[in-house]
Please model this.
Amino acid sequence: MSFELRDHTADVAVEATGPTLSAAFAAAADGLAAAMCDEIPDSGERFDLEVRAESREALLFDYLDELIYQRDVRGVLPVDNEVEIREGASDDGDRARGSEWVATGSARGVPLAGLGAREVKAVTYSEMALEETDDGWRAYVVFDV
Amino acid sequence: MTTNDAETYEAGDVTLRKVREYVWEVPKEGDMRVPARVLASETLLDQIADDKTLEQLRNSTHLPGVRKYNLCMPDGHQGYGFPVGGVAGIDAEEGCISPGAVGYDINCGVRMMKTNLSYDDVQGREEELVDALFANIPSGLGGGGVVEGDIDTVEAILDRGMEWALEEGWAVEEDLAHCEDEGVRHDSDPAKVSQKAKDRGKNQIGSLGSGNHFLEVQRVTDTYLDVVADAYGLEEDQIVVLIHCGSRGLGHQVCTDYLRDVEKAHAGLLSQLPDKELAAAPAGSQLAEDYYDAMCASINFAWVNRQLIMHRTRQVFEKVFGSDWESLGMDLLYDVAHNIAKKETHTVGVGPEGRPAGGGKAADTEERELYVHRKGATRAFPAGHPEVPGAYLDMGQPIIIPGSMGAGSYVLRGGEESMAETFGSTAHGAGRTMSRTQAKKDYWGGDVQDELEQEHIYVKAQSGATVAEEAPGVYKDVDEVVRVSDALGIGDKVARTYPVCNIKG
Model:
């Protein structure tokens, strides 16, 4: 899995790839961290997170949004992201709502104090892509800086 | 991207028609509901046509209820969904409101505080001043805020804006009198702001953040409309302070929350739009009302954020210059919002069947209440407009246009043409022209700082990368942006300033 930061006039775009959907999600999350900090130290404790959404693309949006939220409330930069993506029945058992997508993962939270990290404000849907390729999955996300 | 003759401009698959000097129209075609206009010189248009600005501007005209035309200001550039520098007047009864078209940083804006210091008083003490400002004003990621608040504090701020600051001793009455909407949106409802948003906001009350946000001490180098400059209390060599920041994580979360809620609740409308980031709640729907109330609450939060930073700046100046802030004449000139939607009354065309119409073929005109979306655009109300605060009613509202840390900034006043031409709006800054990733390849923060110091501009930042990303060379020519605004009569040049000290995240 890997990511690249892509040019955008005002903001930052991350292009992430991975052999599986889960790997592409984790790479996009690591790309988000790289957009905020160039040199990431080894410090910090891991924390868990779980996110649910109505579609794969919405889950990517909500997963990255959750990392930004955790950054602000925990005061840490989430790095070394690990995540498993699965499709499952809604947990309220309401079959009429159909399936939902679930991300279960963890991140290492590097304390922000003294890190000199820059703020990414939010995830956007603008130009978002999440597609299966010959080699696995590709995600493209523009973040508001 | 060439001009084939004097009347049109070819930008990829878009042909712009020249309406008159500095006014270019993208004709209504396909599913566009109204035409779009770009206000630019050819130099600026070359830059605007170079990324996805025009595509995003055309996409924005698909929103239901847009009136007349959507606009791109002279500093416009590609954003997400709606372009930065975008203005749309959307009918508040028959149209919609779009969180993404307001932007994540709700009420990102600028304020300028005056002083009675002259440049002579500051020269030789710039490093002491920049160090004291940097040490005392929270910036960057995880830098805390001026106020360590709890949820009750956040809710009081969301509810009452600058009135809260006044009650708590962070503001004086004169500060409120010199702020857009007098520093409070009474339509706010803290209950419409999520717990997540409040949790993000409570550690950030009174903080700059990072990116393009900054605090800059400046000197006035030129004044143009002397009667207005006098009324604003601006003169050459005077020291002023410009503060640029927004609603921090709280506002970002509010936009995110409502974007997702609108996506789920109004999928039918969304399916008609060319970009998911434009997701909109139909006027009159519960979500439109809730978002408006939450957005107004976030606007209040941003005003308090800038107020607390201004309060702290006054304390720093008191310490550095050994005099109280009142004696230093540290009064607020004005505070303007960049990313907002506001219910405002504007004159728009009425179509043949008595329905509001876009385009120029209306049978007559009428007053309509609109959600005026301004994203990276500033309100520019002229003299005499009832919503201009009393202090500036005779002169027109001050507009503050920050340039880069190497180029200086402008103070304008709302122009006579703004109501007819731009839903009472003008530019908001210089506008970026180079990506952040490219900027970090082309510039190194330390070199940029050294070069600026040669020009007697002292910069201090939490991150060298921020200095590189915000290097003067990544911005458009602010002089050209302001020249177009002035020539169109939407925002008239009053004064120009030049940086002295700059702190950023």
About this structure: Strands of chain A lie at 2-6, 12-18, 45-53, 76-89, 99-111, 122-123, 129-133, 136-144. The longest helix of chain A spans residues 56-74. Chain A touches chain B at residues 5-12, 36, 38, 54, 58, 61-62, 65, 68-69, 71-73, 75, 77, 111-113, 115-119, 121-128, 142, 144-145 (CB under 8 Å).
